[in-house]
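[Discussion] Sanity-checking designs against the backbone

I'm trying to build intuition for which residues belong where. Below is a C-alpha coordinate string of 87 positions. I'd appreciate it if someone posts a full sequence so I can compare it with mine line by line.
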Protein backbone atom coordinates (compact mmCIF):
# COMPACT_ATOMS: atom_id res chain seq x y z
CA UNK A 1 0.00 0.00 0.00
CA UNK A 2 1.44 3.38 -0.99
CA UNK A 3 0.45 6.83 0.28
CA UNK A 4 2.23 9.89 -1.10
CA UNK A 5 5.08 7.76 -2.47
CA UNK A 6 5.52 6.02 0.89
CA UNK A 7 5.09 2.26 1.25
CA UNK A 8 3.02 1.52 4.33
CA UNK A 9 4.44 -1.18 6.59
CA UNK A 10 3.90 -2.48 10.10
CA UNK A 11 6.81 -1.71 12.39
CA UNK A 12 5.45 -3.21 15.62
CA UNK A 13 2.65 -5.46 16.79
CA UNK A 14 1.53 -6.12 20.35
CA UNK A 15 -1.03 -8.67 21.49
CA UNK A 16 -3.33 -6.86 23.91
CA UNK A 17 -5.80 -9.67 24.68
CA UNK A 18 -8.93 -11.31 23.34
CA UNK A 19 -7.61 -11.69 19.77
CA UNK A 20 -6.74 -7.99 19.50
CA UNK A 21 -3.41 -6.77 18.20
CA UNK A 22 -2.20 -3.19 18.40
CA UNK A 23 -0.34 -2.31 15.21
CA UNK A 24 2.04 0.60 14.65
CA UNK A 25 2.64 1.54 11.02
CA UNK A 26 5.66 3.38 9.65
CA UNK A 27 3.61 6.58 9.21
CA UNK A 28 2.85 6.52 12.99
CA UNK A 29 -0.74 5.35 12.47
CA UNK A 30 -1.90 3.03 15.25
CA UNK A 31 -4.71 0.53 14.82
CA UNK A 32 -6.06 -2.00 17.29
CA UNK A 33 -7.45 -4.80 15.16
CA UNK A 34 -9.95 -7.31 16.56
CA UNK A 35 -9.42 -10.61 14.72
CA UNK A 36 -12.02 -12.59 16.70
CA UNK A 37 -15.03 -12.01 14.39
CA UNK A 38 -12.99 -13.10 11.36
CA UNK A 39 -11.64 -16.22 13.08
CA UNK A 40 -14.90 -17.16 14.73
CA UNK A 41 -16.98 -16.80 11.55
CA UNK A 42 -14.61 -18.78 9.36
CA UNK A 43 -15.60 -22.30 8.38
CA UNK A 44 -12.06 -23.14 7.28
CA UNK A 45 -10.31 -25.35 9.88
CA UNK A 46 -6.92 -23.93 8.82
CA UNK A 47 -8.13 -20.50 9.92
CA UNK A 48 -10.18 -21.65 12.91
CA UNK A 49 -7.07 -23.23 14.44
CA UNK A 50 -6.03 -19.67 15.34
CA UNK A 51 -8.89 -19.52 17.83
CA UNK A 52 -6.40 -21.39 20.00
CA UNK A 53 -4.80 -18.39 21.69
CA UNK A 54 -1.40 -20.10 21.77
CA UNK A 55 -1.51 -20.31 17.97
CA UNK A 56 -2.91 -16.80 17.61
CA UNK A 57 -0.23 -15.20 19.77
CA UNK A 58 2.49 -16.78 17.62
CA UNK A 59 2.53 -13.99 15.02
CA UNK A 60 5.47 -12.01 13.71
CA UNK A 61 6.25 -9.09 11.46
CA UNK A 62 7.99 -10.11 8.25
CA UNK A 63 9.09 -7.31 5.90
CA UNK A 64 6.33 -5.02 7.18
CA UNK A 65 3.56 -7.65 7.06
CA UNK A 66 1.82 -9.33 9.98
CA UNK A 67 1.86 -13.08 9.53
CA UNK A 68 1.47 -16.39 11.30
CA UNK A 69 3.42 -19.60 10.69
CA UNK A 70 5.30 -18.62 7.50
CA UNK A 71 2.27 -16.89 5.93
CA UNK A 72 -0.16 -19.66 6.88
CA UNK A 73 -2.39 -16.76 7.93
CA UNK A 74 -1.90 -13.18 6.80
CA UNK A 75 -4.00 -10.17 5.85
CA UNK A 76 -3.68 -7.45 3.23
CA UNK A 77 -1.80 -4.48 4.68
CA UNK A 78 -4.55 -2.12 3.44
CA UNK A 79 -7.17 -4.01 5.47
CA UNK A 80 -5.05 -3.85 8.62
CA UNK A 81 -4.28 -0.17 8.05
CA UNK A 82 -7.98 0.63 7.61
CA UNK A 83 -8.92 -1.79 10.42
CA UNK A 84 -11.29 -3.76 8.19
CA UNK A 85 -10.78 -7.50 8.35
CA UNK A 86 -12.82 -9.15 5.62
CA UNK A 87 -13.99 -12.76 5.75
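Best answer:
Here's mine. Compare freely.
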Amino acid sequence: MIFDDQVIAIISAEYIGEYKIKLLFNDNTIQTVDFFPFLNNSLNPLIRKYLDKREFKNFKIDNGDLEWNDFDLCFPIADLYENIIKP
